């Protein structure tokens, strides 16, 4: 099997072999890999897989108004997923901002402001998720 793969690779033109070599030896940075892992986790936690498989409605016009958040926990709209993903991303950005603020020890004012922005984003995301679960979903 390996010889067959080597034979097909060696029979390619020079530019194709160079492209294949460049693709096979690529090594993304740790920052990119962490970003991809976080994006994948936010997608899963936000209900993206459910939205792909079940294909729910984006929103519903009911009782003279649009419902963007399904009123019960058993189902969800696409906008439910998007809202959840946005709020989770906001919380993660808040955590990352808080972490980045520790790198500015020699500039205490900038570190303090970054820390406050991170805490504010994290609190807004948490309170929003809890409010949606408590008031709109009835949990």
Produce the secondary structure layout.
Elements: H1 2-10, H2 14-24, H3 30-45, H4 48-54, E1 60-62, E2 65-67, H5 78-101, H6 108-136
Antiparallel strand pairs: 1-2
Helix pairs in contact: 3-5, 5-6
Plain-language structure description:
This protein has helices at 2-10, 14-24, 30-45, 48-54, 78-101, 108-136; strands at 60-62, 65-67. With 139 residues, the chain is mainly α. The protein has one domain (26-136). Helix 3 (30-45) runs antiparallel to helix 5 and helix 5 runs antiparallel to helix 6 (108-136). The longest helix has 29 residues, at 108-136. The model has no long low-confidence stretch (mean pLDDT 86).
Q: What value does the average pLDDT take?
A: 86
Class based on secondary structure composition and strand pairing: mainly alpha
Query: What is the count of distinct domains?
Result: 1
Neighbour order of strands in the largest sheet: 1-2
Radius of gyration, in angstroms, nearest whole number: 23 Å
Number of strands: 2
Helix content: 55-70%
Number of helix segments? 6
Q: Return the string of H and E elements.
A: HHHHEEHH
Low-confidence stretches: none
Beta strand %: under 5%
**What characteristic shape results from the CA principal axes?**
flat
Largest sheet: 2 strands, antiparallel
First CA to last CA: what distance? 57 Å
